[in-house]
Each structure stands twice: as structure tokens, then as C-alpha cells.
Design goal:
This protein is an alpha/beta fold. 45% of the residues lie in helices and 18% in strands. The chain has helices spanning 15-24, 44-51, 66-76, 90-97, 117-126, 135-139, 142-162, 181-191, 195-216; strands spanning 2-6, 29-35, 54-61, 82-86, 104-106, 129-133, 166-169, 220-222, 225-226. Helix 1 (15-24) links the parallel strand 1 (2-6) and strand 2. It is globular and about 40 Å long.
Length: 234
């Protein structure tokens, strides 16, 4: 299973520290989600080797301008293993759901965001995974937590009805905010998700990354079909 963590050049937690924490928590991989305006690309292969964890390059686009978002998608799609578009606005949610080059619609219920059946069905048709972020439930209290739980229950029903793909994250911004998969499952079950759904959402980050890597493999002709070099039998 994978966790998607927010990292920045001046962030409180380095990619290596995240890798250590996630490896100790039993995760198989991590997605480094960095902002498109200040991207970082640490030595992922050496981190993966040192901590025994897959390290995925994620780019998170944050803007309320669809023109800017479109340009950023074109710029970062060839470089990101997981391309994430932050919603938090009904128009941006719909734009992301209708953009097949986007891998993940992040935090669709955050800020002024909302989701409906039309957007959920668009995400299903275009293969855009909807993020189920448990961060607010984990780190807020009182009214804001109650509202976050209500939003996630609505999100669950929309995803289920539309058959849309989804990812799950605790959205940690420091290693101290990392929670193990069992803890995320427990929180999800309290909200209305099944344990299998939460685990599936955690695995989907890795599934997306593997799909993108396969497409970029020069041996791949079409998804699922590769060309192998002929062996010399002489």
C-alpha cells in the first residue's frame, strides 16, 4: 500500500525522513506530491534502495484558473508519475474529472469544493481517481471534523454510485502526521467505508504509477504489450 505525502524544498520533513517513517509503518511505497510552482525531484532511486520503499514522483497542480491548469497539465504530464489536480472548487472539480491526462482529482470537497453525480460519472468515464483525504478527520476537531466526516460520507456514496476509481490518503505534511494503514482503515470504517475500500484506495496510488511507468517503457507497444529483443541462439 502507498501513502501520498506533501513535500517542499523548505518543508519540515525531508523525503528521506518520510521514507523511513512510512517504511516503518509498513507501507510499500510513497507518492511525493510537490507543487507545480516549486517542484522538487530528490534522488528517488537511492531513497527507494535505502529504505526498501517505492518512491513515486507526483506533481500537484493548484490553481483556480482552468487555462493555467491546462498549461500545467501539458507541461508536467511527461514528467510526473502521478499527476494530481487540486479541486476545492466545483468548476475545477469538473475540469479535472473531464481531463483524462489527470490521474487524481485531489481534495474535491475541500475549500468551496463539492461533488455531484455528473462529476463523479465524468471521473469514472475518464479514469480520473477521486481522492478520499482523511487528513481533516485525523487532524481537526469539533465542527470542522463533523463537516469533514459528512463530506466524506457523501463522497463515498457518489464514488460507489458512479463506479469511479479512487485513492485514499491521510495527506501528511510532516512525518509526525503519518498514520499506519490499519489506523487509516479504522478511521475509514467509522465514516462508512469498508476496510477493503480503504486498502484498495491506498493501493491505487501504486497502480497508477505502475501504469504510467509501463506506458513510458520504450518496450511497450500498447498497454500490456511489450517487445522483447531476440535472443541469439547461435
Amino acid at each position: 500500500m502507498y501513502e501520498a505525502v506533501r513535500v517542499a524544498a523548505d518543508g519540515r520533513t525531508t523525503p528521506r525522513r518520510f521514507a523511513l517513517t512510512l517504511s516503518n509503518a509498513g507501507f510499500d511505497g510513497m507518492v511525493l506530491r510537490t507543487n507545480q510552482s516549486a517542484p522538487i525531484d530528490p534522488p528517488r532511486e537511492s531513497i527507494a534502495t535505502e529504505y526498501g520503499i517505492d518512491v513515486v514522483r507526483g506533481i500537484e497542480i493548484e490553481t483556480d484558473d482552468k487555462g493555467v491548469a491546462s498549461g500545467a497539465i501539458g507541461n508536467w504530464r511527461p514528467k510526473a508519475e502521478v499527476l494530481i489536480l487540486n479541486g476545492r472548487d466545483p468548476e475545477m472539480n469538473r475540469f479535472a474529472a473531464e481531463s483524462p491526462r489527470v490521474d487524481v482529482l485531489a481534495d474535491p470537497m475541500g475549500g468551496d469544493g463539492d461533488l455531484n453525480h455528473v462529476i463523479a460519472r465524468a471521473a469514472a468515464e475518464n479514469g480520473v481517481a477521486i481522492e478520499v483525504s482523511l487528513g481533516r478527520v485525523l487532524r481537526r476537531s469539533g465542527g470542522p471534523r463533523v463537516q469533514a466526516i459528512s463530506n466524506l460520507r457523501k463522497l463515498h456514496d457518489l464514488i460507489e454510485d458512479a463506479g469511479a476509481p479512487f485513492v485514499v490518503s491521510g495527506t501528511p505534511e510532516t512525518h509526525l502526521q503519518v498514520r499506519g494503514a490499519r489506523e487509516l482503515v479504522a478511521v475509514g470504517e467509522k465514516i462508512g467505508f469498508s476496510a477493503d475500500e480503504i486498502e484498495t484506495g491506498l493501493r491505487t496510488w501504486g497502480t497508477i504509477a505502475e501504469r504510467i511507468r509501463e506506458r513510458r517503457d520504450p518496450k511497450t507497444v500498447v498497454p500490456g504489450v511489450t517487445v522483447e529483443s531476440e535472443k541469439d541462439d547461435t
